[in-house]
User: Which sequence fits this backbone?
């Protein structure tokens, strides 16, 4: 498939979606970056599968490769792992023209991306996403972050990659659970602005490469208009306010990101219907499509355990949280609510008090 060009106020960059793209990574990076040292950041699950192959491609293109392997999972998005990456960058002699390669899912992309954004005040970043969730969403758009005890993604930077290289073939190694994890984000794209995509997902009649490209094109169109998440881009966080809170309240262990977002989308529909803002029956439609992909539609977590994280949500502007709701499938909007208003309506729709 031909490359897609992402255009933002701060950077333009190519996105390659191609079978076998990992084997051509070195030449792509060499064409985009001046430096010839690199550090490949990956995790202990992706590394055994693809690190040797990626390293071979980069070395064939003339790169001196260092490696930094972190434990898989959200727990690696913390200040300690960030410091570990800085140490590896220093040991490798990474300069301002040398790229960081983020090889993995959303956790690796967020962590390596923030490290690249802040090492020497910014070095080139190459995103090589290996999960469906990362390919359709997190590797594109320039959001990078780590977590703090107070909440998810609270420390980060908007930092666009130099290029993004996606190989759809790697998705065949994913477990059913992590394919479903990515499908939650695909369903999200359909719900907030692409009902034709949602129809295809409901019918389970789609080509995966087409889905990836369609979601990427949707995201870069939004990012082009709102790079710094001050308006329209907030709509991409549909389901994420409650989803992130569920992840935090359960120690980032019981639910994957997509699973938590799935529950968050159901709750957003319930809130919208309760407030009279969302077409009746929307929540039932969302539940049906989520359950068809074996995604959860509720979480056995007390609401009081979620509220602190919900109230520290990044979509809070001043005294109000801008909650993402639907008018109908395919049309999302921002609903400003005070913490008291949101707490009250959540208390009415959340299955546990």
Assistant:
């Amino acid at each position: 498939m031909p490359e897609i060009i992402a255009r933002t106020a701060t950077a333009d960059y190519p996105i390659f979606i191609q079978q076998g793209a990992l084997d051509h990574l070195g030449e792509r990076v060499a064409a985009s970056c001046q430096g010839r040292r690199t550090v490949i950041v990956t995790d202990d699950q992706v590394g055994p599968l693809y690190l040797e192959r990626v390293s071979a491609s980069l070395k064939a293109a003339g790169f001196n490769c260092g490696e930094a392997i972190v434990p898989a999972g959200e727990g690696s998005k913390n200040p300690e792992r960030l410091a570990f990456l800085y140490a590896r960058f220093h040991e490798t002699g990474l300069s301002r023209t040398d790229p960081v390669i983020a090889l993995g899912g959303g956790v690796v992309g967020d962590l390596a991306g923030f490290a690249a954004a802040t090492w020497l005040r910014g070095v080139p970043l190459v995103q090589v996403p290996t999960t469906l969730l990362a390919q359709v969403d997190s590797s594109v758009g320039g959001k990078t972050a780590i977590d703090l005890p107070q909440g998810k993604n609270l420390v980060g930077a908007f930092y666009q990659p130099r290029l993004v290289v996606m190989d759809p073939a790697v998705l065949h190694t994913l477990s059913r659970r992590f394919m479903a994890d990515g499908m939650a984000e695909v369903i999200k794209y359909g719900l907030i602005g692409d009902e034709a995509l949602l129809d295809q997902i409901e019918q389970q009649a789609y080509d995966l490469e087409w889905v990836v490209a369609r979601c990427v094109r949707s995201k870069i169109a939004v990012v082009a208009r709102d790079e710094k998440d001050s308006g329209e881009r907030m709509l991409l966080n549909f389901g994420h306010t409650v989803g992130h809170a569920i992840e935090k309240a359960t120690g980032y262990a019981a639910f994957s990101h997509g699973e938590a977002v799935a529950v968050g989308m159901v709750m957003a529909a319930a809130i919208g219907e309760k407030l009279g803002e969302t077409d009746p029956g929307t929540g039932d439609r969302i539940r049906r499509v989520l359950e068809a992909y074996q995604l959860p539609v509720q979480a056995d977590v007390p609401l009081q355990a979620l509220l602190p994280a919900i109230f520290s949500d990044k979509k809070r502007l001043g005294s109000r949280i801008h909650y993402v709701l639907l008018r109908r499938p395919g049309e999302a909007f921002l609903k400003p609510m005070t913490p008291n208003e949101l707490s009250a309506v959540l208390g009415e729709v959340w299955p546990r008090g």
The chain has a mean pLDDT of 94.
